[in-house]
């Protein structure tokens, strides 16, 4: 058994232990943790919040040189790799918080020139359509300039209606391309058809509507608002002389009035190209004169009209360009003076369509049966 220790020694050991416990233990600051990363990179990451109200800032090394000045604007044709080495290395160095890294600014490229407005209102290339192996339209080529009043003439069954139906997107062609002001009618149908107003052949109207209701229906289908439809309906009905008949059912209209209300419906959305198939069929001379006057005002304002007609005299009088079609092929097309070659349209049409030879072969008509 150990001998009892002196009281003085015990007291000395207790005092030493007390001093050791009272000495504060310094915990390492979270920002001073050693790492291989550069000091600047540590500053980029915010220190975790520990709830302290006072925190010692992380040590940071002084940069070797003064901060680089912002880079000068490089010319558009300058080569980035040709700059000085110190300028090229600056963006790769860590950037302290609160300072923005210099950004290289190059001159903007010149905007591409806007596409010019097409100089052709209608372009038809190799347009063909077959029914039962027979060619109704056989590789037709046409070109119509903006602002033209263009007529298409030909005998019955020549392919005029089929051609116009393919031009307006009502009938899909078997071959060929149709462009309206540069837009392919079948590849960009929605945009192309916005620029087209159509009067199809043998059009069946919603004739149980009044004239006003019919025009409103046509405008609403084109996306026009109510106020615009009302204004344009009033203008068109006044131009065509229908202002006193808008309250009547379309089924009660005469043939001429029906044609006029149908053309008004085709024009209500202000198209750039108006395609009319036989607009003067069964129309009296007074109504025809009114329609022609409206169409001439339309072309004078920059619109383009393409129509088919059996009336050679009327077509020659109002059109500045014409195409003669027979058996699905274009026999002649171009400005009116070039196609006529000093003759009337009827004479030129009969010559190209072969009507004279057909009449000459009918000599038996000169011998009467009695």
TrEMBL record:
<feature type="region of interest" description="Disordered">
    <location>
        <begin position="17"/>
        <end position="118"/>
    </location>
</feature>
<keyword id="KW-0813">Transport</keyword>
<feature type="domain" description="ABC transporter">
    <location>
        <begin position="122"/>
        <end position="352"/>
    </location>
</feature>
<protein>
    <recommendedName>
        <fullName>ABC transporter domain-containing protein</fullName>
    </recommendedName>
</protein>
<dbReference type="Pfam" id="PF00005">
    <property type="entry name" value="ABC_tran"/>
</dbReference>
<keyword id="KW-0547">Nucleotide-binding</keyword>
<keyword id="KW-0046">Antibiotic resistance</keyword>
<dbReference type="InterPro" id="IPR003593">
    <property type="entry name" value="AAA+_ATPase"/>
</dbReference>
<dbReference type="InterPro" id="IPR003439">
    <property type="entry name" value="ABC_transporter-like_ATP-bd"/>
</dbReference>
<dbReference type="InterPro" id="IPR027417">
    <property type="entry name" value="P-loop_NTPase"/>
</dbReference>
<keyword id="KW-0067">ATP-binding</keyword>
<feature type="compositionally biased region" description="Low complexity">
    <location>
        <begin position="104"/>
        <end position="118"/>
    </location>
</feature>
<dbReference type="InterPro" id="IPR050763">
    <property type="entry name" value="ABC_transporter_ATP-binding"/>
</dbReference>
<feature type="compositionally biased region" description="Low complexity">
    <location>
        <begin position="75"/>
        <end position="92"/>
    </location>
</feature>
């Amino acid at each position: 058994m150990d001998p009892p220790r002196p009281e003085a020694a015990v007291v000395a050991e207790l005092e030493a232990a007390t001093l050791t416990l009272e000495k504060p233990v310094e915990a390492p600051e979270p920002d001073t943790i050693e790492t291989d990363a550069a000091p600047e990179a540590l500053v980029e990451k915010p220190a975790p919040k520990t709830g302290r109200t006072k925190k010692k800032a992380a040590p940071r090394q002084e940069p070797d040189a003064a901060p680089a000045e912002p880079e000068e604007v490089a010319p558009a044709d300058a080569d980035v790799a040709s700059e000085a080495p110190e300028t090229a290395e600056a963006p790769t160095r860590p950037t302290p918080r609160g300072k923005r890294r210099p950004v290289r600014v190059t001159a903007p490229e010149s905007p591409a020139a806007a596409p010019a407005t097409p100089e052709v209102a209608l372009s038809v290339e190799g347009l063909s359509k077959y029914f039962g192996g027979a060619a109704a339209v056989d590789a037709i080529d046409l070109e119509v300039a903006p602002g033209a009043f263009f007529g298409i003439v030909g005998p019955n069954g020549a392919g005029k209606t089929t051609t116009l139906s393919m031009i307006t997107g009502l009938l899909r062609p078997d071959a060929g391309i149709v462009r309206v002001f540069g837009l392919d009618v079948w590849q960009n149908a929605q945009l192309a058809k916005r620029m087209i107003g159509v009067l199809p052949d043998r059009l069946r109207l919603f004739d149980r509507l009044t004239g006003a209701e019919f025009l409103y229906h046509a405008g609403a289908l084109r996306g026009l608002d109510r106020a615009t439809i009302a204004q344009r309906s009033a203008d068109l009905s006044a131009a065509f002389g229908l202002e006193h008949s808008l309250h009547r059912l379309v089924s009660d209209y005469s043939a001429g009035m029906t044609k006029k209300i149908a053309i008004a419906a085709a024009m209500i959305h202000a198209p750039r190209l108006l395609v009319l198939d036989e607009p003067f069929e069964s129309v009296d001379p007074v109504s025809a004169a009114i329609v022609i006057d409206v169409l001439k005002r339309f072309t004078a304002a920059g619109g383009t009209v393409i129509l088919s007609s059996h009336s050679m005299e009327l077509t020659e009088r109002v059109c500045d360009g014409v195409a003669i079609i027979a058996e699905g092929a274009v026999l002649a097309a171009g400005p009116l003076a070039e196609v006529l070659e000093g003759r009337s349209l009827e004479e030129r049409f009969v010559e190209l369509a072969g009507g004279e030879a057909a009449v000459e072969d009918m000599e038996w008509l000169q011998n009467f049966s009695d």
